[in-house]
Fold these 2 entries.
Entry 1:
Amino acid sequence: MVLIVPRCKVFHMLLQSARNLTHTLMLLFAASLLAACSTPGPTASQYPESRKIDSARNAPNSLGERAAAVAVGQIGVPYRYGGQSTNGFDCSGLVHYSYAKAGKSVPRTTAGLWRSMDPVPGSEIRVGDVLFFHIEGKMSHVGLYLGDGRFVHAPATGRSVSTESLSNEFYRQAFVRAGRP
């Protein structure tokens, strides 16, 4: 026996099947998103560079701690000369952005930061202090101190915002001073 169905009816049946498939796929997608949201992601305390920042979680954070936390949140953002947004940062752009998000306006350039910061002796460096480095014959690089001898910075073209240790020979030799806004 052959079932004869008008073309319009066939089209309607195919359309209904497609709607059901689309609906099913949308439900599966939504379920996977909800499952991902219910899975706890990594916390800041799992990363050594944020241990110091996270230690006073319940206490009001200082300006420097807030700025450092903002900077840590930018890890992985690509370096971009002149960049000062989540599309890309250069070193002073990262400091400028981080302090602005923390609630304080600081100069945009490394030279401007140098002139505006109160010098901080090495023994008194705190989380969020700006670190200045003398690279390629001039004071030309900055980062934000994170505690435990680590800092966050936007290093160079082809790289991204990352953390580094002040005990790294290159940065240990290039370090000039710290400053506090």
Entry 2:
Amino acid sequence: MKLITFILLLILSPNLSFGQADLNNRKSIFLEIAGSGGLGSINYESHFYKKGITEFTWRLGFSLAPIDKNNGTAIIFPVMINSLIGKKKHKLELGIGQGFTITTKGSPFALTVASIGYRYQAESKNWFYKIAYTPLISYLVDFQVQQWGGVSIGYTFNNTIK
């Protein structure tokens, strides 16, 4: 319960800041269908660095997924670092992170999550759309790669892309 409270405080904290001042206002929330959070997730994203045509963001998500009778439901927290590469509204998005999971029966596990995709966000618009290949990589017991992908729609608050 303390972990969930801590994560919610991170998501809701308006004073979280990294890097350049003009990027601190660029925070987004998006719904991802399939993708890094499993069947679907709600995600918070914050931009923290920009140089040239490359921007860096971090994201934290939340998802629930049914597993089976023995394990119950999985509570998934995908945490990722992403880079957005491109000019204007068309961007290549690359990301890597961890998907931390705990089941309602108390079993924890982790998966490495990766992402390579396309992001469209018009310069003066707050809405964005993404499509990505998001393999889920298991390495704790044995090495497995689950082929996966996702689509997203999101909203950027205080969009300063000019």
